[in-house]
From TrEMBL:
A Pfam cross-reference name: Aminotran_3
The organism's place on the tree of life at top rank: Bacteria
CDD domains attached to this UniProt entry: OAT_like (cd00610)
Family annotation (InterPro entries): Aminotrans_3, PyrdxlP-dep_Trfase, PyrdxlP-dep_Trfase_major, PyrdxlP-dep_Trfase_small
CC cofactor: pyridoxal 5'-phosphate
Similarity annotation: Belongs to the class-III pyridoxal-phosphate-dependent aminotransferase family.
EC number(s) stated in the UniProt entry for this protein: 2.6.1.44
Record bears the keyword Transferase: yes
Organism for this UniProt entry: Micromonospora inaquosa
GO molecular function ontology, one term from the record: alanine-glyoxylate transaminase activity
Protein name: alanine--glyoxylate transaminase
């Protein structure tokens, strides 16, 4: 690599920070949905900095909004002072959240947002008992990691919370996978009642769930499951936290928030990633009654700073003005339908799943459902060789993940689809 950057990285950064690809790449420039590495190689980006570069690269409206704020000389004041950009963005998010009488607290990352949601939920309910989903991921801090149901991402077995685990909605493996969608919902609701009766003291604070599990490999339950759960939660006064860090802002195509597919409204909603389009910006939205459940002074020094919220306002305005939710539905269908048609019938493909521009392909060994992370990695590397960047995930590391910018064009979708199909068929030993 240029200037032996890989050796320098390994000399000063911890080994538990992963690097993609057998030969890691440094991305040095980007435009639209394409990035260029230090060797001058161009790639179509189907992962967007882990679903974060939601609008793409080098977008004039976002760059100009940030430059205008920088030109004032104020990059930071702390939230001890009024911040116009922060207030304006909070107003927009509160209105779009679907939560009545909403309040917004800004943080720097999805981890911090989930940590804040857990803080207010446990305060509000005066309980440290939490319901969480198997195969979930909610962040790398102490409490957020405690409600993460994926051992690959649980860096510590210590936990400040008492957690009871529900089924994830996985339709490839697990106890509920063999059921129809309606049967799975009924079984999951019955399981929730049993978990409450047997694994908790009754006064549970909240259920936290991703509408589509991100790190978990884009696993998602049948639509309506959250509604079934919410009915039981309401009987006990238990709060519902929707982790929308990856599913928010119209990425699923059919709705602005992932929770809306279930016909419910959460008590708390966390967001991050795409709203900053690369700038550190995240937060939690909640009913005032719940979000005000903080009994001492608390604030985030950098959360909602003038630079990040200037970017956030520009991102949200661009998203709405260009109806990127509709684009995600339209372009995502090209990818999903194309993948199912071209490779969905292969013995090595267990499932093509997801919604909008949040799609995954799960690979297994032919003749059974055993996960095949080796094949997944070969496809992952082959796609890069073909000029396409994607992601990996899943409990067993056997899911290829795609979360392109929501500005992806139909032509780019077809280009990426051709590269993906070619990589999958080649690595699976199938003739083109």
């Amino acid at each position: 690599m240029t200037d032996d950057l890989l050796a320098r990285h390994r000399a000063v950064l911890p080994s538990w920070m992963p690097l993609y690809y057998a030969e890691p790449i440094e991305l040095v420039s980007g435009s639209g949905r394409r990035v260029t590495d230090a060797q001058g190689r161009s790639y179509l980006d189907f992962f967007g900095g882990v679903l974060t570069n939601m609008i793409g690269y080098d977008i004039p409206e976002i760059r100009e909004a940030v430059e205008r704020q920088l030109a004032t000389g104020i990059a930071h004041t702390s939230t001890l002072y009024l911040i116009r950009q922060q207030v304006e963005l909070a107003e927009k998010i509160a209105q779009r959240s679907g939560i009545p009488d909403a309040r917004v607290f800004f943080t720097n990352s999805g981890t911090e947002a989930n940590e804040a949601a857990l803080l207010v939920a446990t305060n509000h309910r005066r309980s440290h008992q939490i319901l969480a989903l198997r195969n979930s991921y909610h962040g790398r801090s102490y409490a957020a990691m405690g409600v993460t149901g994926n051992r690959n991402w649980s860096a510590s077995g210590l936990n400040p919370l008492q957690v009871a685990w529900l089924h994830s909605g996985d339709r490839v493996r697990g106890l509920l996978a063999r059921l129809s969608a309606d049967e799975q919902v009924d079984a999951a609701v019955e399981d929730l009642r049993e978990v409450l009766a047997t694994q908790t003291a009754g006064d549970v604070a909240a259920l936290i769930a991703e509408p589509i599990q991100g790190v978990g490999g884009f696993v998602h339950p049948p639509d309506g499951l959250f509604a079934g759960w919410k009915k039981v939660l309401d009987e006990h006064g238990i709060l519902f936290i929707a982790d929308e860090v990856q599913t928010g802002w119209g990425r699923t195509g059919e709705h602005f928030w992932g929770y809306q597919a279930h016909g419910v409204t959460p008590d708390l909603l966390t967001f991050a990633k795409g709203i900053g389009n690369g700038f550190a910006l995240a937060g939690v939205v909640g009913r005032a009654e719940v979000l005000e459940s903080v009994s001492a002074i608390s604030f985030s020094t950098f959360g909602g700073n003038p630079i990040s919220t200037a970017a956030g306002n520009a991102v949200l305005d661009y998203l709405i003005e260009h109806d990127l939710q509709a684009n995600a539905a339209r372009v995502g269908a090209i990818l999903a339908d194309g993948l199912r048609s071209a490779v969905g019938g292969l013995d090595c493909v267990a499932e093509v799943r997801g919604k909008g521009l949040m799609l995954g392909v799960e690979f297994v060994r032919p003749g059974g459902g055993e996960p095949d992370p080796t094949l997944t990695n070969r496809v992952f590397e082959a796609a890069r060789e073909g000029g396409l960047l994607a992601g990996k995930g899943g409990l067993y590391g056997n899911v290829l993940r795609m979360g392109p910018p929501l500005t992806l064009t139909e032509e780019e979708a077809r280009e990426g689809l051709a590269i993906l199909v070619g990589a999958i068929r080649s690595c699976a030993g199938v003739a083109a």
